Amino acid sequence: MTKILMTSVRDDEQPAIKAFAKEHEIEIVTTPKLIDDAVDLTADVDGLVIQQRSKVDPAVYPQLKANGIKQIATRTAGFDMIDLAAAKANDLTVTNVPAYSPRSVAEHALMQIFRLLRKSYRFDHQVATNDYRWFSDEQALEIHTATIGIIGVGRIGGTLAKLLNALGATVLGFDTQPRDEMKAIVEYTSKEDLLKRADVVSLHVDLNPTSEGLLTAEDFALMKPTAGLVNASRGPVVNTADLIHALKAGTIAAAALDTVEGEGAVFQTDRRERGLADEPQIQALHDLDNVILTPHIAFFTNLAVKNMVDFALTDVLTILNGQESPHTVSA
Question: Which PANTHER family match (predicted)?
């Protein structure tokens, strides 16, 4: 019987994992550990599925090869935690799940856009201190009067554009490869023009050498001082130090961040006792009253979790059967 190891498994994934194992008559071994700490378990399995944001330990790749593993499936869209060159050197095929549920992230971004337009972050902080007043500069924009800029109009950004269009918002888009089918609802323009005109800018790009540091101080200076930023893509897309300065200086009004640089040391950890002193940039964002932080949970819906499990495991079986997965990624 085919046997597959899944690492970093959460309780909420178990129903989908058990259903897949039953349907396909395979055995799936799960562990909450990262692959770095569970590599010994691969000696007795045929395939591997991982999930993590931290870099895979370089020592893992030759160990996987020595244990007869032929592939690594990450049940995430991002695959920057995997050294593709090291994987290739050890004859490991790498797959990802590029579209587990574009709607999940798009809906999260839409929620945050609403929160920025309605300035809920201001009222959250006020009410937390028992201040129930409201002020002239807290007047909101109705979404059908707002202009929303989407950087990266792909699967997720395109889904968000459709939701915004249905609500009557003006939608601007910047993408290196504009799609003809989106031009009826998205006004494609330059990044600079989008930043100047948008009431909220929402980021939906992959992390790669061209997108790292995509927004810096120079870009924030182009934005309206009343504008907000949503980042539900990857942390390094934004220069965090520049963003913190822009938020403190009033260069932009607010930010809703589901992902930040250095999040691997903080997100999915309990910091109630320890605090954030060892992560000063995240501490600075946490302390600002014009920042909404969520711990990389935009994807976290019923359908997305099931799809991440199903697609990743299907890729493993495809490769073990000697076929090529459409989700193979390479350097």
Answer: 2-HYDROXYACID DEHYDROGENASE HOMOLOG 1-RELATED (PTHR43026)
